[in-house]
Amino acid sequence: MSDRTFIRYFSYMIGTMVVLAVVVFVIAQVVAGKGTNAAAVAKMKKMNNTAIAERMKPVGRLLVRATKSTMNSIIPTANAGGEHGAHGKSTYDSACGACHNAGLAGAPKTGDKAAWKARIAQGNEVLYGHAIKGYTGKKGFMPPKGGNTSLSDGVVKAAVDYMVKNSK
Ligand code: HEC
Questions:
Q1: Residues 6 or more apart whose Cβ sits within 8 Å of residue 66
Q2: What are the sequence ranges of the domains in the chain?
Q3: Separation of 143 CA from ligand 1 center, angstroms?
Q4: Which residues contact residue 40 at a Cβ distance below 8 angstroms, ignoring those fewer than 6 apart?
Q5: Closest Cα partner for 77 from 165, 144, 151?
Q6: Whether 156 contacts 131, CB under 8 Å
Q7: Which of 30, 55, 77, 121 is most buried as measured by Cβ atoms within 10 A of its Cβ?
Q8: Does the beta carbon of 155 lie inside 6 Å of ligand 1?
Q9: Residue 79 Cα, ligand 1 centroid: separation in angstroms?
């Protein structure tokens, strides 16, 4: 093949490649959609944190309804308002008052200073232990946690604190 023919074919080839490049570029623009990208970016820029969090949040969410016993396990010691928490009265009312309000089954009445004097003298740790683990004394049987074993140790201690405070 002569040099001239070679140069002619070579020019055709270059020309074809240039045309091809332009076609590919145009197709790429159409497929990738320059406009769509810009719109998506604009949309993302407009999204605030709440919207982003909304998009990123997990598909499922577990809802746990708080019952008294789940609250007790969520707040194991509830150290607000006093050594063992402000839950003393509410725990006492719901789990201990049945026996200790009226002195049922030999239970020392809350507020009965004479009945509590010797008990309080044992010290808080002994009282906590008896309230949490249960206790059989001369008067009768104190069931563990007043029979409500779903109570945390912390709230039972708070109830003991409440009883002691009101029986001195
Ligand atoms: C079913 C009745 C009953 C319930 C409910 C009950 N108690 Fe008692 N508790 C007793 C009896 C009876 C005694 C006395 C036992 C004895 O000394 O013979 C007692 C004694 C105690 C004492 C004194 C222990 C000692 O060493 O002298 C504490 C403290 C106490 N209870 C805390 C609690 C707390 C806190 C609750 C609630 C979480 C509770 N009790 C619920 C019956 C009950």
A1: 74
A2: 3-56, 75-165
A3: 7
A4: none
A5: 151
A6: yes
A7: 77
A8: no
A9: 22
- Model-level pTM? 0.61
Whole-angstrom distance, CA of residue 143 vs CA of residue 150: 13
Ligand 1 pocket mutation, candidates 69, 99, 168, criterion most atoms within 8 A of CB: 99
Q: Contact 120/168 with Cβ under 8 angstroms?
A: yes
Decide whether any atom of ligand 1 lies within 6 Å of the 147 Cβ. yes
pLDDT tens for each residue of 88-129: 888 999 999 999 999 988 999 999 999 999 999 999 999 999
Residues of the chain with pLDDT under 50: 76-82
In 3D space, the residue among 111, 109, 135 whose CA is nearest the CA of residue 122 turns out to be 135
Amino acid at 126: V
Q: What is the mean pLDDT of the chain?
A: 83
